[in-house]
Amino acid sequence: MSHLRCDQTEAWAALRGHFEAHGRAFDLREAFARDAGRTAALSFDAPEVFADLSKNRIDTATLKFLLDLARECDLEARRDAMLSGEPINLTEGRAVLHTALRAPRGKGLFSDEVHGVLDAMLAYAERVRDTAASGIRHVVNIGIGGSDLGPQMVVPALDAYGHRELTLHFVSNVDGHDLTRVLRRLDPADTLFIVASKTFTTQETMANAQAARNWFVANGGADVSRHFVATTTNVEAAAQFGIDTTFGFWDWVGGRYSLWSAIGLPIAIAIGADSFRAFLAGAHAMDRHFASVPLERNLPMMLGLLDVWYRNFHGFTSRTVAPYHQGLARLPAYLQQLEMESNGKGVDMAGSALPFATSPVVWGEPGTNGQHAYFQMLHQGTDVIPVEFIAVKTPAHTLADQHAKLLANCLAQSQALMIGKTSAEALAESAPTASPRIDANTLAAHRSFPGNRPSTTLVLDALTPRSLGALIALYEHRVFVSGALWGINSFDQWGVELGKALASQLLPRLASGDTAGLDGSTASLLARLRQ
Ligand code: F6P
């Protein structure tokens, strides 16, 4: 079935007109003053996640135009095509079925295969967690990209649920400092290595796995097959490496969508089988919401539409994520791969160059740390950068004073971004730390804030396996929505290939010093690095 690309629709032209008439000059403060029902109209409830979109530069009229766009682009049919296993990853001829990994037994596609591996993996995880019997105290996940970022984000996020006698380590970088830093602290006798790679060919992972095995043997490790397991679609290659415990998955699971599969083994070891099942159930609840709730109350749909509004009409080039929960420190890095590897594309499905912008830059740090680093720019810089705040109502600790301060800061930042401060207000304030020699009007210009800076606030009642599963699925579907509207393939990643191929060509040149045929810059840098 062929669908219209966003810019080929009547709704796109209508949105352009709406933007020129009302969007460009939209003022959040005026919008709140005008409409007492604004917060209610722009708040959304999805499983485990509440979303306040009211501090965004939209109103119900904007939403109507965006919903027209969604309908004209057949967004629901595209969603259904993904969920029913059509090969929507056209360039690789694959289905996109990470949702099948979290469907209850008997309910999703490939259920027997999925639950067969899941049961085996969770039983294995429980055996490792029985530390008295397994003798394991350290688990090292060796993987990169989608074989690293998900588990590396989730394990600390769910630390409250984590096994107290097991330490999880993550090694991803081919930079030997990464592996060395971890191995220095370990003893082969109580260490389990997970070699995580969908393809089992990734240069970084293979080099690190080989080095880990050499270290294991050199330090008296016995029984490689008991201390190394693999999570991969390439079971044969894992066997050739000498690993006989392998948990498989399938080509219809994209790397950046794979933490629900065997790639989630470190998560299962950390939090246990019951919590891992709750994690899957949370994601499944969000899948049901995405699949069945009407467009106008469907949170992933709304967020994806908002992303298009900001990227293609307001021209915002980035979005920052500010989780006010230290456990979510790695969420921005995880979202970078999810969104930028999925939607960082320049051609549509037919290979035609796109005449509009696609993925924004996604970045961020946990609050409140970011406030003391780059929030200055968010408040007073020349770029408008929408912020996504994530607040968690109930913490997993008992430090009530800290938590109240954390939440107050989260609310204060979105409020400050929106209301700003006029120079008249700044002039009326005292500024005890300002230089006594500066003119009052000049100082007021420095101390004023433009305001009208947009933000979204997502609220979780608590950070649990279930709510985190729902939150991640929300992001996955939101990325699908903007990608589908843009008419791109969100499920391939050809853009990573060229660098990989050139690195393979440069590797022998680093050894030989041969710079023949290289551009001047690369030749000179290569020579300098060899000196
Ligand atoms: O280089 C990008 C990429 O292919 C990602 O898409 C993937 O998550 C990562 O490399 C790791 O791949 P693998 O799991 O096959 O080692």
Offer a quick outline of the entry.
The protein is an alpha/beta fold and 531 residues long. It is 49% helix and 11% strand. The strands form two sheets. A six-stranded mixed β-sheet has the order 1-2-11-10-8-9, with helices on both faces. It has a five-stranded parallel β-sheet with strand order 4-3-5-6-7, sandwiched between helices.
Written description of the protein model:
The structure is a single chain. The chain is of the alpha/beta class and 531 residues long. Helix 12 links the parallel strand 6 (228-232) and strand 7. The strands form two sheets. Strands 1-2-11-10-8-9 form a six-stranded mixed β-sheet, sandwiched between helices. A five-stranded parallel β-sheet has the order 4-3-5-6-7, with helices on both faces. The model has no long low-confidence stretch (mean pLDDT 97). The chain is globular and about 75 Å long. Helix content is 49%, strand content 11%. Helix 8 packs antiparallel against helix 16 (331-343). Bound molecules: 6-O-phosphono-beta-D-fructofuranose (F6P). 6-O-phosphono-beta-D-fructofuranose is lined by residues 144-147, 197-199, 202, 205, 255-256, 341, 493, 496.
